[in-house]
Amino acid sequence: MTKKEKKVFLLTAVLCLFFAVPQKAQAMHIMEGYLPPKDCVLWFVLCIPFIAAGFMSLKKITAENKKALIILAMAGAFTFVLSSLKIPSVTGSSSHPTGTGFGAVIFGPWVMSIIGVIVLVFQALLLAHGGITTLGANTFSMAVAGPFVSYGVYKLCRKLKAGKFISVALAAGLGDLFTYCVTSFQLSLAYPSPNGGIFMSMIKFLAIFAVTQIPLAIIEGIITALALSAIEKISDLDFDNKGILKREA
Amino acid sequence: MNLSLKKVVICLFVCVIIAVFPLLTNHTSDFGGSDDAASNEISQIIGHEYEPWASPVFEPPGSETESLLFCLQAALGAGVFGFGLGVLYEKNKKSKKDTV
To answer: What is the pTM for the complete model shown?
Structure first.
């Protein structure tokens, strides 16, 4: 195989995986009407500063260079695709990856709050998946907490001189997993167990969400690393230290 | 991050194995969503059936329509992503030509 043929294969292989047919059946996100109004407001308010910072980050990224805009659109698309794939897990439940680690690694965590909200609104309005009343809570877990963990893990791994592939995979995987840990926390905060309180509930919800998510987090890690390496190979861009934004400027 | 073809294939293979493994080992489950499992848990904790206080704005009438919308979401995303890769590929080719 020539180098060019290899490139084509890599591209199609990644795309084929994206096209994998979504499983039917409901999956994660906290459902419409399932959080008490008090909690809904709390999580909405907590999201506001991140959304505001997200807008500023978005403005900065798009002002800096045009190539970044394309990759930003791709980060959004990546989140769209991954969050539509419901994958069966060992617990007998299905859930889906978040796809937010990809953008968080490239652009930093802030801008992902905007992308995450767009995906969540789409799913809440058209798919009855998640909800408008629970949008704040779901935004906080998927579009704020997850990306921040991804970004932190990536930076830490790189500082520890871990390979890029491993760093990206760990970042995306752990960000994914953490999203569902936050979801579990949000639910246990709203529904503390009568005997054992928040802590007992937390264990129960973690058993549902987090355990289901572990295999999916591994998949998300691998796919994210593959997608990033495909972009690097094709575009000759280097992702370290946001190099992608600076090199062209 | 230069991956050999072999590594890429192995990675994809691992992903497929992870996704297929539960289907082979767990024959009793219909792999419903983990949020349905969570709503059962909520009912157990509060001791009675939980009544959601809001309902979705629009709910797909059936699983077929729902899968249509999910497919649409995936297709849109994949399309944009593929387009982006194409643009980057061409830009890179062009800038290489310019520097030669």
So the answer is: 0.83
